[in-house]
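Field reference: sequence -> structure
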Amino acid sequence: MTFFKRKRVANGEAGDYASAEDFRRVFSDGRDELHQLSFLLTGDHETAEQCFVGGLEDAIKTNQVFKEWARTWAKRSIIQEAIRVLKPRPSQHAMSFTTEHAAEIGVSLPSISNRDLARRSALALEDFERFVFVITVLEGYSEYQCALLLYASLQDVRNARIRATEHMATAESSPMLLPIALEADQMGNRTRPTLKQYEY
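Structure field:
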């Protein structure tokens, strides 16, 4: 018996799988948050919309995801779609860091209190660093999980995270150098696809 089946037996209805309608509801109710995640990953409005729609389509086709995990899976679907579209890869000329250097810097980004500054920082990063920043810092994935998602080495992810950390330190001292923050409600001025277009 698998873990998932055991969980379903133990939790009863709480272990029921999410349906296509459940995912449409998650994407509809969390539209602004999911659009913002897509935009932070892609840094571009049109590509963000493409990844939002692609994430919805992928989530709807997904089998055996528990209802209580539907929101988390929706965000993961958008991340995976953005990775598929942009194919972020580490720069061959990017600086590499030792474990001692990483410890010296002290990656404290998960405790960021100024979320607006963190989002603005993400938009100023190169693609691979931006993906690592959003996935590990803003979404809370481990470096190992991030490496699996990006098909990258753990060292590449760690290096990118350290570079993002150093960029964050610069941003904190010179916030005016960062792009203007674009909140989810400001994105509402653009035409967004309606979920009714995607019936399965």
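Note: Residues 24 and 167 are 37 Å apart (CA to CA).
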